[in-house]
UniProtKB/TrEMBL annotation:
The protein's name: Sulfur carrier protein FdhD
Originating gene: fdhD
Species per Swiss-Prot/TrEMBL record: Salibacterium halotolerans
Gene Ontology annotations for the cellular component aspect, listed alphabetically: cytoplasm
Active-site residue numbers: C107
Keywords: Cytoplasm, Molybdenum cofactor biosynthesis
Gene Ontology terms describing biological process: Mo-molybdopterin cofactor biosynthetic process
One MF term in the entry's GO annotations: sulfur carrier activity
PANTHER family according to UniProt: FORMATE DEHYDROGENASE (PTHR30592), SULFUR CARRIER PROTEIN FDHD (PTHR30592:SF1)
Residue sites binding Mo-bis(molybdopterin guanine dinucleotide) per the record: F245, V246, R247, G248, D249, K250
Keyword Cell inner membrane among record annotations: no
Family of this protein: Belongs to the FdhD family.
Function of the protein: Required for formate dehydrogenase (FDH) activity. Acts as a sulfur carrier protein that transfers sulfur from IscS to the molybdenum cofactor prior to its insertion into FDH.
Length: 267
């Protein structure tokens, strides 16, 4: 079935020694070029849904805007693949700073590698949220059950914003950063507070994903997959609880485990 995010394509199928003609549901991939105040800023390759949220979240994570009301007008030409953003003021950061590497101290601890805008926009968490291991598992399950596109195509990343009790919002995209930007954009557009929210993610917990979570402002990140060493270092420095391999009754807590385990539960 054709939808705005997937379409059927003919394939040659091989199953148990049998070759046959068949059809498969394929996720759509489309470019979107963003112009800010008339200047070309970035081209993103994405799944064609919730594009307005993605643009808003991306610009906020890049430091171009701080709040949704910084945008005077946002025009989307989805058919041609362009987004035209008009701001009330000039961007907060120089465009040239978005690809420059910055080496500095994070919270006075270890030396970390950032892009210059990451250094400016990442937030140290002050969350008071806490989760039990069983709640981590239930939130991960809720995110997975909510992803129809993944079940149909197997070709997207899933991300969800949750309270400590339930899933609040989920987004998917072929790009893991895009899925996070869509969540962030929704929060900004609807004035959601994220301080005590939980980010649930289907992919690997890389330093880029962790930095994106810090920009959004969450204090707990749950991943179905593995973290990288730099992601763990960043999570430790930014006071974020990083939890990986959340699968059934198993999980690994890599940083700030006090938010997951009560004191004295270690065997």
């Amino acid at each position: 079935m054709t939808s705005h995010i997937s379409e059927p394509r003919p394939i040659t199928s091989y199953r148990a020694g049998v070759v046959s003609a068949a059809a498969d549901t394929i996720v759509k991939e489309t470019p979107l070029t963003i112009y800010v105040n008339g200047d070309e800023f970035a081209t993103m390759v994405c799944s064609p849904e919730h594009l307005r949220e993605m643009v808003v979240g991306f610009l906020a994570s890049e430091g171009i805007i701080l709040v949704y009301n910084d945008i005077f007008r946002l025009e989307l030409d989805e058919e041609s693949g362009f987004a035209y953003v008009h701001l009330y003021k000039k961007p907060n950061l120089s465009f040239s700073g978005h690809s420059k590497r910055f080496i500095g101290s994070c919270c006075g601890k270890s030396r970390q590698f950032y892009f210059h805008n990451d250094m400016k926009m990442a937030k140290t968490s002050r969350t008071s949220a806490q989760l039990s291991p069983s709640r981590c598992a239930s939130l991960m399950q809720a995110m997975q059950e909510d992803s129809e596109a993944f079940h149909q195509t197997g070709g997207v990343h899933n991300a969800a914003l949750c309270s400590t009790d339930e899933l609040l919002l989920s987004r998917m995209d072929i790009g893991r950063h895009n899925a996070l930007d869509k969540l962030y954009g929704h929060c900004l557009m609807h004035h959601w507070s994220v301080r005590d929210k939980v980010l649930v993610f289907s992919g690997r917990l890389s330093s880029e994903v962790l930095t994106k979570a810090a920009k959004i402002g969450v204090g707990i990140v749950l991943s179905k997959s593995a973290p990288t060493s730099l992601a763990i270092d960043l999570a430790d420095d930014l006071n974020i609880t990083a939890v990986g391999f959340v699968r059934g009754d198993k999980l690994n807590v890599y940083t700030h485990s006090e938010r997951i385990f009560e004191e004295g539960v270690y065997s």
